[in-house]
Amino acid sequence: MSTLSIRDLDLAGKRVFIRVDFNVPLANGGQEITSDKRIRASLPTIRYALEKGAGLILASHLGRPKGKPNPEMSLKPIAAKLSELLGQPVAMAPDCVGPSVEAMLPKPGEVLLLENLRFHAEEEKNDPEFSKQLAKLCDVYVNDAFGSAHRAHASTVGMIAFVKQDAKQAAAGLLMDKEIEYLTKAVKNPARPCVAILGGAKVSDKIEVIQNLMKVVDRLMIGGAMAYTFLRARGEGTGKSLVEEDKIGLARDLMAEAGPKLMLPVDHVVAAELKAGVETQVVNTVPGSLMGLDIGPKTVDAYTQVISGAKTVIWNGPMGVFETPPFDKGTVALAKAVAASGAVSVVGGGDSEKAIKSAGVADKISHISTGGGASLEFLAGIELPGVAALEIGANSGEGF
Ligand code: AMP
Question: Which of 203, 258, 254, 255 is nearest to 226 (CA)?
Fold first, then answer.
């Protein structure tokens, strides 16, 4: 199955509904935007649609207002910021559906931002009536909010069936399109050798990712705290390192299933406590009174060797407590190895992105995903409802 891209559509004179991800961090009771990264990320799609002569209706959720209007989670400050970034007026709707919105629909070249979708409980319930009201606003639907694609909500799934009635079209925006392209290629048809680096806090968060990736990749390198649950399952000492006791059996099964392609750290940077500037040692096995907080230099060398021969690298999760130097060294070293490898590299959102940025190599990574949860589900082989609904042939014409 494939999806249409916004590039495939004729947008001239059309009213285009773009589901964007404007779920930005706010301070001062919702008045101040502390990072406009997500707004900037949507600009290419917005500019593209405006250049093609569309009138735009932009919609997003913001925070968790639990189905009721809450002035601290209004999108008003975002309208002002977007207007500044685009260099043109952005009208702010008082709601996201109903007569007050229908009276403000944009003409070609104009931009209307809807109020927070989650002010209506029907959004998260994927309510058909609410979906129909959203669909009624537009001629064409575009989803550019990859970070919300793992949620089957009215604005990400429900409204699409109604838009597709009457031969109206639905497509992925430029950002969403890039996500689908890179992630699909990495897990379905990667250039080989294809290797994965998985780290972070818990095995339990990434069980499905490990299970799916072990079928796809040639090597699976494990780091971070999750390595200690595996090492314990192999009977090694892990001292005071983070171990998920109830996942030791599962780790044993995963190791048996993966066989030699699963690699574990062979040495560790350990300390008595997690604190910046604390005394550290490098050990092959973590002694009883200490905890493993980063992969050691021999592990960095072994993993670097694998990465340097790879044609595709998939990465999710840091190799150590990268927020607290010196336990960032392993993660930074691998980030540099990925950057130097020349491989197609796909990095999951959240902490992995922060780690790549702190290593100063973000511009050498082929694709840094904008969706933490969504990219993890994609890597786990789970079909994302927001992507499935866009697929050609999905839902067309049948409504609910
Ligand atoms: P995740 O969200 O699962 O990718 O986990 C990221 C978190 O895992 C970060 O906050 C890291 O500090 C933490 N982490 C990575 N390695 C370790 C470790 N060896 N011990 C404790 N926490 C770790």
Answer: 203
Q: How many CB atoms neighbour CB 361 within 10 A?
A: 18
Are 293 and 327 contacting, i.e. CB atoms less than 8 angstroms apart?
Answer: yes
Are 379 and 348 in contact by the 8 Å Cβ rule? The answer is yes
Is pLDDT at 34 greater than 90 in this prediction?
Answer: yes
**Which residue, 142, 121, 124, 122, is CA-closest to 132?**
122
Q: Which amino acid is at 360?
A: G
Which residue out of 321, 322, 334, 356 has the highest number of ligand 1 atoms within 8 Å of its CB and is therefore the one to mutate? 321
Region 6-176+384-388: CATH code: 3.40.50.1260
Q: What is the pLDDT of residue 2?
A: 84
pLDDT tens per residue, range 369-386? 988 889 999 999 999 999
pLDDT tier at 395 (50, 70, 90 boundaries)? Answer: low
Is 53 assigned a catalytic role? no
Question: Cα separation of 273 and 90, whole Å?
Answer: 51
Are the C-beta atoms of 267 and 283 separated by less than 8 Å? yes
Instruction: Give CA angle at 364 (3, 145), nearest 5°.
Output: 30
Q: What is the pLDDT of residue 394?
A: 72
How far apart are the C-alpha atoms of 223 and 259, rounded to whole Å?
17
Which residues line ligand 1 at a C-beta cut-off of 6 Å? 199-202, 205, 224-225, 242, 292-293, 317-318, 320-321, 323, 351
The long-range contacts involving 208-215, CB below 8 angstroms and separated by at least 24 positions, are: 208/380, 208/381, 208/382, 209/316, 209/376, 209/379, 209/380, 210/254, 210/258, 211/254, 211/257, 211/380, 212/187, 212/379, 212/380, 212/381, 213/187, 213/314, 213/379, 214/254, 214/257, 214/258, 214/261, 214/262
Question: 281 forms bridges with which residues in the sheet?
Answer: 270
Within this chain, domains 6-176+384-388 and 192-342 share the same CATH topology: yes
pLDDT digits (tens, 9 = 90+) for 75-84: 999 999 999 9
**What would the mean pLDDT of 320-333 be, rounded to a whole number?**
94
Is 192 among the catalytic positions?
Answer: no
- pLDDT at 400 (0 to 100): 34
> Among 202, 261, 354, 357, which one carries the catalytic annotation?
202
* 38 in catalytic set: yes
| CATH architecture of the domain with range 192-342 | 3-Layer(aba) Sandwich (3.40)
Domain positions in the chain are 6-176+384-388, 192-342
